[in-house]
Amino acid sequence: MISAFKKKILIVDDEQEVRDSIRRCLMASGAYIIEEAINGSDAIEALKTYAPELIIIDVKMPVKGGYETCMHIKSDLNMKNIKIVGISGVSGGIGGAFMEVLGVDAYFEKPLDINKFRERIAKLLQDQK
Hints:
Elements: E1 7-12, H1 16-27, E2 32-37, H2 40-46, E3 54-58, H3 66-75, E4 83-88, H4 94-102, E5 106-109, H5 114-127
Parallel strand pairs: 1-2, 1-3, 3-4, 4-5
Helix pairs in contact: 2-3
């Protein structure tokens, strides 16, 4: 596959192990170019030079968390159409409810069901114009 046609993804999570796991899961298809950030502040800085079609973001992180980062992205006219997938280690659906209010496109609790996660990412990027 020619890299010009690969979809760009930004993974934002403070845990290196989680970022590595998501990267391995998605890179297996060969269809993505992936960058990483360790918190929301780093993600916002990365978005100044990297234009992903999709962001995978953890809800709870130090410095700037997923909620604040999503609000920032959705309020920026240049970024508001980027697809966002929220992830969280907090169970019970509360994180998902907050992320839904913020307008994220999908939400998953950790540990991720890799097959469902991969399928949802592919579907979101396929639907993107």
